[in-house]
Design goal:
alpha/beta; Rossmann fold; 2 domains; 4-stranded antiparallel β-sheet; 13 strands; binds zinc ion
Length: 305
């Protein structure tokens, strides 16, 4: 097995600035392929939050174990599709593109409600779609062969965190959308306790963390504007659970090294357990969404007429 890990240093994807402040460091605490603690940094010019240095694009495959992209189409997703549909329902659309479409079941859900639409999907990790009415390309969006000024609607559910260049995606989406077309997508919130204090961002698979402020700048840069946004609580639990768990641990000197080596002592473990209990009280209700501090945001962008 190749045990060398190639990292790359990057400039800000949004504004090109190379200055940043470090927010925190976090290892890949899911796979622990190595002990490296990835710096999560914030651009001093535009506020974009990203992993830097990060695994090079050609290395990303090893951070996604086989099966990672499966299971996106089972029954439990129908509930999610119902919520997603509420976001697209207010708009007129005949042509839809789904970025990261997996087996195309979200597009099939749309088709069941509104048959006869022009439905396209792209996904670099899926070999085929389950539905013959979906025009599918196995490709990254930026490399896909799609018509410009063609789509009324583009969707991307939890995709932009994973890509190496969000700018390239915003550029491509804007190009493929008709004037007045909508881009509806879900991202994690860089200003949430979920991301900042509870360390829930899936590093290094989540390479970018967004906010209203940074999405507004992306939209403007690629001739779009935000027309709606929602701190949604339906997709997965993006409360700040873990905030007090880690806070009390940190106070007693717990760090990622101790966690990864399983050397957290009994006093530290007790403190963290108390932290967990405080988490369960503080985050019992979904109060963060009302304060725009929850971990997920769904945006609706419109391409300028
Ligand atoms: Zn920047």
């Amino acid at each position: 097995m190749n045990t060398t890990f190639k990292l790359e240093h990057i400039h800000c994807d949004l504004c090109g600035n190379d200055k940043y402040v470090e927010r925190y460091r976090k290892p890949d605490n899911w796979l622990f392929l190595n002990q490296f603690q990835y710096p999560v940094v914030e651009c001093t010019a535009c506020g974009l939050v990203y992993v830097n240095p990060r695994p090079a694009a050609e290395e990303m495959g090893r951070y996604y174990p086989s099966g990672y992209h499966d299971g996106r189409n089972d029954e439990k997703h129908l509930e999610r599709y119902a919520v997603q549909y509420l976001y697209i329902k207010p708009y007129q659309f005949n042509s839809v593109l789904d970025v990261g479409c997996a087996r195309g079941d979200w597009l099939a859900y749309i088709n069941r409600i509104s048959p006869g639409l022009e439905l396209h999907g792209v996904d670099a990790f899926s070999n085929l779609v389950n539905h013959d009415f979906v025009t599918f390309q196995k490709a990254l969006l930026c490399e896909a062969n799609l018509k410009n000024n063609f789509f009324d609607l583009v969707t991307a559910w939890a995709v932009l965190e994973h890509v190496h260049s969000p700018s390239a995606y915003f550029e491509a989406v804007s190009r493929h959308l008709k004037d007045g077309g909508k881009f509806i997508f879900l991202v994690t919130n860089s200003e949430s306790l979920y991301g900042k204090r509870a360390y829930c961002e899936d590093i290094p698979r989540h390479l970018y963390h967004f906010s209203e402020k940074t999405i507004e700048q992306y939209a403007k840069k690629f001739s779009m504007k935000i027309i709606a946004k929602n701190y949604d609580t339906h997709f997965w639990d993006a409360r700040g659970i873990g905030t007090f768990y880690y806070l009390l641990g940190n106070i007693l000197g717990v760090n990622w090294n101790l966690i990864s080596l399983n050397r957290v002592n009994i006093i530290q473990k007790l403190a963290m357990r108390i932290g967990s209990f405080i988490d369960s009280l503080v985050f019992y209700f979904q109060w963060e969404a009302r304060l725009k501090k929850s971990g997920i945001i769904v945006f609706v962008l419109e391409k300028a007429e």
